[in-house]
Amino acid sequence: MTAHPAGPDPRLRPTGPDDPMSTAPDEPGGGPAASSARPQVPATGLARRAESTPAPADATRPAEPLWPVRGTAAGLGYVALPPTAVDARASGPTELIVAWPGFDPPRTAAAMATAVPMTGVPTWRVFLDLPHRDDPSSVLPTGLDSQGFLTDAGVTAFGASVEQAAALLPAVLDDLRRDLDVPVAPVALAGFSAGAAAVLLTLARQTVQVSTAALVAPVVSPARLAMSVEKRAGRERSWSPAADELAERLDFAVQVGRVAGAGAALLLIGGARDRIVPPAEVTALHDLLAHCGAPAVEAATFRMGHALAAAPGTEARAPITEAVRVDGVLTDWFRERLAEPTTPAAPPVSLHLTGSSSA
């Protein structure tokens, strides 16, 4: 496991090997870049700011870093955005949100961190790469809407990533808590597309205590996804019995009772123009979860397709309009459940105009 401060913020401007920027930026989605007088973050151990003044009496841990931290946890790359919100603080035990990207843009932790940074949430937001096999055929270069999903290799790549992501999460959390100095407590989860399927599988297995989760365009049923691709491609899938069994294991309409039983508050987000996960699929999942007794489940639909980033979605780029909308909803959802305001409401102002009468 390794952790180190991130380089220049690619959301603010693309960088290359010859980029002259030498100061660390704010996290993606934050305010203007800080001046070069910003204190340096140590490169060893947890990236923390050096403090030259005594800590407040109620401080229990060192100050947080001011910019992203990149590292690996259980062998998977991550981008961790620190809690820099100035108008709110964590209100409960959950101080960590883990989010997975998908097989469609955004496809990597870095790309998702710039697409939906959730800057206003006063917790660590850790964007984690999905596990992929070393075999190049294990990755669908054109996403879940391609004919590759109709092949054995395609659905196996999808299923393996989802199952490994859920299986590795306990070890990932151990490393993240050590890297980021976060206490052992329930976590929050978020995911997009295949990453949202990993969230559903984690909830169904109940191997990790989850307080709340948000799922953007979740792949609820690989078999139904394949049927929609078949109609558009004009060809049938060529899955082996093992691939069929894998798809059945990841049919969350069947596992919805266990997902609801995890006890997490759930937000589902769909796209009205999504061909991969149609909005009816998201609505049906919402109704099933509510019927099975999920403590809190809400759904929202936006006028968007499936992707949350411009193709190819592997590098950090400025967010597209759809991502900005989704980021706002995710931020509100997690703030309502994990945060409380730090600035008290202003008292009412009484105005008295000269020469006026109060009679």
Rg (CA only): 22 Å
Taken together, the total number of domains comes to 1
Strand content: 15-25%
How far is it from the N-terminal to the C-terminal residue, by CA? 73 Å
Can you give the helix content as a percent range? 25-40%
What's the quaternary structure here?
single chain
User: How many beta-strand runs?
Assistant: 11
Protein name: Alpha/beta hydrolase
InterPro entries: AB_hydrolase_fold
Structure, explained:
The chain has 359 residues and is of the alpha/beta class. Mean pLDDT is 82; it is low at 7-62. The longest helix is centred in the middle third of the chain and has 29 residues, at 152-180. Helix 2 packs across helix 3. 30% of the residues lie in helices and 16% in strands. The N and C termini lie far apart (73 Å). The chain has one domain (2-7, 62-341): Rossmann fold, CATH 3.40.50. It is built from eight helices and eleven strands. The chain has helices at residues 109-115, 152-180, 194-205, 222-233, 241-249, 256-261, 279-291, 321-338, and strands at 2-5, 69-73, 76-81, 88-90, 96-100, 124-128, 187-192, 210-216, 265-271, 297-302, 339-341. A nine-stranded mixed sheet has the order 1-2-3-6-5-7-8-9-10, with helices on both faces. It has a two-stranded antiparallel ribbon with strand order 4-11.
